[in-house]
C-alpha cells in the first residue's frame, strides 16, 4: 500500500481515525444509556395520504435522538453506529415497541391506521427477530397486519439464506413488508421474485426528478405499473411540490408522503391530524355523490 495523499500525512490520518472511533465509542455508550431512559429516543411520525381521498394510508415512524448535549440527531448520524454494535436488536425492539404503543392508542380512538417501521437490513440476519416482533404485537394487542416493516432492498441480497428464513418468519407473524427506496438497489426485480411483499416505496430521488427528467418519470411510472400488476400498494416518498403530486396522480400512484403533505411530527400531534384527514375524506364523499 502506498499513501497517495500529499505530505506523508499518515500520522494525521491515523489520529483522525482514532478521533472518529473514539467518538463512535462515546456515541455507543450514550446510546446504551438512552435506550434505558424514557424520552431521548423519540419517534417522529409522517403520515402518507391517499391521493384520491386525502385520507391517511399509513404513518411512518422515523427515529430522532434528543441528545442532551449534541442536540437533536437525525438517524443518519447514529444508525450506522447501532448497526455495527450489539445494540441493534434492542434498538429495533425499542422502535417497534414505541410504534405499536402509538398504534394501540390510535385504535383506542377508533383510528385503525397502519404504522410503518424502518428495519435495518442487518436486523434480517437475526433469527430471533420474528419471535420478538410477535411478542411485541401480543403485548400491545395490535393486529399484525397493522404493522408494516420497511426494508431497504440493497443489503438484502447478501446472506440470502438467513435473510430468506427471517423474512419467511416475519411473514408468518402476519406483519406487512414494504420495500423502501425502491429502484435504488441493484436487484429490485430479483428481490420481488424471492420475497412476497405488500408495498413498494418509490425513492424520493425519482420523485424529485420526475417533473423535469423523462428518465426519472419513466422509473416512477414503471414502478407504479409494476405494483399494480403485482397487486401491491405503492407509496411515493419525498413529495415536496404540487407539480409532483399532480404528476403522481396522473400516473395512477395511489399514495404519497412528503413535506408537501406533512413533515414528520411529534406523536402527540398525529391523532388530531389523522382525525382531520378522515373527517375531510368522509365529507368529500357527499359533494361527489351530489354531483353525480
Ligand atoms: P427512509 O425510510 O427512506 O425515510 C425517509 C426520509 O426522508 C426521512 O429522513 C424523512 O424525514 C425524509 N423525508 C420525508 N419527506 C421528505 C420530503 O418531502 N423531502 C425530503 N427531502 N425528505 C423527506 P430521516 O428521518 O432522516 O431518516 C433517514 C433514514 O434513516 C430513513 O430513510 C431510514 O432508512 C432510516 N431510519 C429512520 N428511522 C429509523 C429507525 O427507526 N430504524 C432504522 N433502522 N432506520 C431508520
Ligand atoms: Mg422508510
Ligand atoms: Mg425511503
Ligand atoms: Mg431513504
TrEMBL record:
Regions annotated as coiled coil: none
Ranges for domain EAL: 24-278
Name used for this protein in its record: Diguanylate cyclase/phosphodiesterase
UniProt organism field: Pilimelia columellifera subsp. columellifera
Boundaries of the shown chain within the full protein: 544 to 835 of 837
